[in-house]
Amino acid sequence: MNNFMKFQSGQSLIELLIAMSIFILAISIISFLVLDAYVANRSALERTQATFLAEEGLEKARASRDLNWQNLVSIGSELIDDKFTRIVTVQEISPNRKQVVSQVSWQLVENRPQEVNLITYLTNWQAIVVLNCNTVCQNNGYSGGSCKTAKACKGTPLGGLGEYQCPSNRICCCQ
Predict the structure, then answer these.
(1) Do residue 107 and residue 164 come from a single domain?
(2) What's the confidence (pLDDT) of residue 162?
(3) Of 26, 139, 24, 135, whose CA–CA distance to 147 is shortest?
(4) Whether residues 119 and 137 fall in one domain
(5) What is the pLDDT of residue 4?
(6) Is residue 114 a contact partner of residue 84, using CB atoms and an 8 Å limit?
(7) Count of the separate structural domains present in the chain
(8) What pLDDT, in 10s, does the model give residues 90-129?
(9) Residues 100, 21: one domain?
(10) Do the domain assignments include residue 128?
């Protein structure tokens, strides 16, 4: 009977070790899930803040455009809330059109940089563009143009330009 008691106490020790291992494993999994949820929540919050800051950069560019088209230029790096860095870059596409890129970057955790980029195209809406045959021809790479009858047109005809003030029975001829 004494041998039976020794065997029982050894078995209890093994059961205790298995139970402790399962408990430690469960606690580790729960800790990992809580930590991962915290990082995901923080990441989403900071990405939302960065998106709003990038949109604010685009709004500043729109306001600058509305005041004076010539003042619409790139804005250097600016630090916001000691965390986010915003750079607004303006690139000219044509005399009356510019591309604006608002980039916000930050560090979520060490060695884990994050970035949000928003891009828009702005037009100089204050520039008055008269759409007539001459302007349309110049925009298509010709030196100019005028409205003529089809028989008199010796240049390149652009059909369907009645909306560009060619009177009826006339077409836009580009030279």
Answers:
(1) no
(2) 44
(3) 135
(4) no
(5) 53
(6) no
(7) 2
(8) 999 988 899 999 999 999 888 889 999 999 999 998 876 6
(9) yes
(10) no
